[in-house]
Amino acid sequence: MQQPPTFTHLLFENQDKGVWLATINRPDKLNALNPDVFKDLGELGAFLESKEHSIRCVVLTGAGAKAFAAGADIGPMAEMNSKLAEAFSRKAQEHLRTLEYCGVPVIAAVNGFAFGGGNEVAMACTLRYAADTAKFGQPEVKLGIIPGAGGHDRLIRLVGPGKARELILRPEIFWTAEQALAFGLVNGVFPAADLLTKVIEIAHEIATRPHLAITAAIDVMNEGQGGSPCEVMENEARRFGDLFNTVDAHEGLSAFLEKRQPSYIGA
Ligand code: COA
Fold it and tell me: What is 211-257's CATH topology?
């Protein structure tokens, strides 16, 4: 087992029983996402993917009461030329894709503003829960730019093309947490004071499940986002079959038939 990497702007704390809390930690800048924050998120994803740990679920939130993340850091972006901006976009996409595909569920606890890149980070997570005070938006075109960290594609997939176009093309529009819930951007809304406790509870619930099945399900759903229905079915059947090589699948099925609680070993 390896220790988690040392991050620049990400706090990473053990919440016991396989659950860890990651906090984007730039509260004085409303957790604005500079290249180092994106790198931290990618390194977190790569560490989780490595399987050299016993982490079963991660909760990702923002430091302070105001923001999950108020977007990409506009300071460094203002200095970029076209080539650097394209490279920044590619890197941000790559880091968030690593996080999205790491195989360990990552749950966003959106505690405040999730604007621009902040919303793009939340959308790369496996599930999203929001404080009732949270606000969501993609205000990039107001600055003469567009989302560059996978936002167009993920937003269309989560809320549909009509709503996605409206959020991106009308940058004065911000969705409240309740609207985000109604449009399918988040999975649930909690009072701000309870958000972290509730999301950590959900993480603990997911962490008790046989993690090879959880990873296989995430993998099939991630692959399903881009593939044709036939490819998705093929991957699903393959991963379904793979699980029958695990002790846990036989344990789960037998335990049901024997009317007892399953005891999983993670293999
Ligand atoms: N990049 C860099 N710095 C940012 C930032 C961003 N995306 N968002 C906020 N900050 C900084 C502010 O510049 C300010 O820094 P300062 O204290 O050194 O001046 C600090 O965070 C607090 O922000 P402030 O604007 O004072 O807070 P507010 O509550 O009045 O407004 C927002 C909050 C989110 C409405 C406002 O900060 C904002 O519009 N941010 C940019 C959102 C955006 O366009 N995101 C997409 C970027 S591509």
Answer: Lyase 2-enoyl-coa Hydratase; Chain  A, domain 2 (1.10.12)
Q: Which of 94, 120, 166, 172 is catalytic?
A: 120
Following DSSP, what letter does each residue of 125-188 receive, concatenated? SSEEEEETT-EEE--GGGGT----SSHHHHHHHHH-HHHHHHHHH-TT--EEHHHHHHHTS-SE
180-200 pLDDT, tens per residue?
999 999 999 999 999 999 999
Report the percentage of the chain scoring pLDDT > 70.
100
Average pLDDT over residues 7-26: 98
Fold of the CATH domain 10-207: 2-enoyl-CoA Hydratase; Chain A, domain 1 (3.90.226)
State pTM to two decimals: 0.95
Domain boundary assignment for the chain: 10-207, 211-257
| Pocket lining for ligand 1, CB < 6 angstroms | 29-30, 32, 70-75, 113, 115-116, 139-140, 143
